[in-house]
Amino acid sequence: MSNTALLVIDAQVGIIDGPSIGPVYKKEQVLGVMKSVIEKARELKVPVIYIQDLDVGSENLEDHHIHPDIFPLPDDLIVKKTATNAFYQTELQDRLQVLEVEHLVVIGVKTEYCVDTTSRGATVLGYDVTLIADGHSTTDNKVLTAEQIIAHHNRNLHGLDNVSHFILVRESSENIFEHKHLEYK
């Protein structure tokens, strides 16, 4: 597990609970999955890295804070970002290299924005990605329901590869911290 890290993307009160952006689809269920994945990572000594979007509320408002149900511990890393890709103009890549990470497990919100963009971006930077099928969520848009967006991304991202790194979409009940990608290389 030493080459694996957990990314918790934009799990902030304003996105998960709303009111201006959320609540996300199946809020309580996805929070429960995120909490259990985070607890499992800590149990396995997998680094937990929270990605926090600076555009979600101001730093002094509750909307900006990471959701209290999955709040970081003092040893967890928090990377602040302004773009949809958590690697863009942040310290994330440097931190992962210091930790010698090769495999990222991804949970968070919103599916079609930061979860998708960061997962895809990670593959071109040399990381294998495990996206947790039941560990990300979003809200309806003018064309698709949140349920359709999530299903679409789970289907389209599973097996997406860039050069020699790719994304596997797995359920939280599986052994998600296992670097299963190595079986296919």
From TrEMBL:
The keyword Acetylation does not apply. The keyword Isomerase does not apply. It is an enzyme of class 3 (hydrolase). It comes from the Bacteria. This is Cysteine hydrolase family protein. Residues 4-140 form the Isochorismatase-like domain. One of its GO terms (molecular function) is hydrolase activity. It comes from Cytobacillus spartinae. Belongs to the isochorismatase family. Its EC number is 3.-.-.-. Keywords: Hydrolase.
